[in-house]
Amino acid sequence: MVQKTQTIPELNADPAELEKFSALAHRWWDKNSEFKPLHEINPLRLDYIDQHAGLAGKRVLDVGCGGGILSESMSLRGADVTGIDLGEKALKVAQLHKLESGVQVEYRLISVEQLAEELPGQFDVVTCMEMLEHVPDPAAIIAACAKLVKPGGHVFFSTINRNPKAYLYAVLGAEYVLNLLPRGTHDYAKFIKPSELSAWARQGGLTTRALTGMRYNVLSKRYWLDQDVSVNYIVHTTR
């Protein structure tokens, strides 16, 4: 069963965002659904994390794990994975898929801030992917992630830059032209510049080691990593 240890009024979360993803939760593992982009970028994210942190034998926390796509794949790389989220329906989907796949992941319904009070400095690796742009206070999420990781451990964040190009590609292009994502998935005002994310990381005691862009070619339908961080990007930090 999914452990439930916190109630909605205490959360650093937008109820509308939670409801939006809860309504789609049953489609999380459908690779042709609204979550298709997550399935397609997951190998990139997984390899990036593994190359920088070495997942085998590590204790890993996946913050905002949703239906468990990244959590399961990190477990298959040999990590001891805990996935946390505030979407109860998504976690139930993750739990059911875990039973079908046989992959060992612990799922908990708890905020990262509360878990940081419970298990400070207990994880070798912390991941927080495609989540920061959906919460009211991303700096608090980053601070909690920093508190959860061991000294010398790795923390990874991915999100969307805030500039006209990002609005064109991530909102107008992805949601209205290509229909890669449901309309309303992203709020441009909540996008985060790399300088902002890096500053919050420093405030939490993290050092930025790498900043990498994640890009998509409409014609080839291929995703890849490079140095262009103008739209989607991943940040690798250490404590």
Automatic annotation (TrEMBL):
Biological or metabolic pathway of the protein: Cofactor biosynthesis; ubiquinone biosynthesis
InterPro entries per the UniProt record, alphabetical: SAM-dependent_MTases_sf, UbiG_MeTrfase
A Gene Ontology molecular function term of the record: polyprenyldihydroxybenzoate methyltransferase activity
EC number: 2.1.1.222, 2.1.1.64
Leading EC class: transferase
Catalyzed reactions per annotation: a 3-demethylubiquinol + S-adenosyl-L-methionine = a ubiquinol + S-adenosyl-L-homocysteine + H(+); a 3-(all-trans-polyprenyl)benzene-1,2-diol + S-adenosyl-L-methionine = a 2-methoxy-6-(all-trans-polyprenyl)phenol + S-adenosyl-L-homocysteine + H(+)
Annotated keywords: Methyltransferase, S-adenosyl-L-methionine, Transferase, Ubiquinone biosynthesis
GO term, biological process aspect, one: methylation
Statement: the UniProt record of this protein carries the keyword S-adenosyl-L-methionine: yes
Binding site for S-adenosyl-L-methionine: 45, 64, 85, 129
Source organism, top-level taxon: Bacteria
Family of the protein in this entry: Belongs to the methyltransferase superfamily. UbiG/COQ3 family.
PANTHER family: METHYLTRANSFERASE, UBIQUINONE BIOSYNTHESIS O-METHYLTRANSFERASE, MITOCHONDRIAL
Role noted for this protein: O-methyltransferase that catalyzes the 2 O-methylation steps in the ubiquinone biosynthetic pathway.
Protein name, as recorded: Ubiquinone biosynthesis O-methyltransferase
Organism: Pseudomethylobacillus aquaticus
Biological classification of the source: Bacteria, Pseudomonadati, Pseudomonadota, Betaproteobacteria, Nitrosomonadales
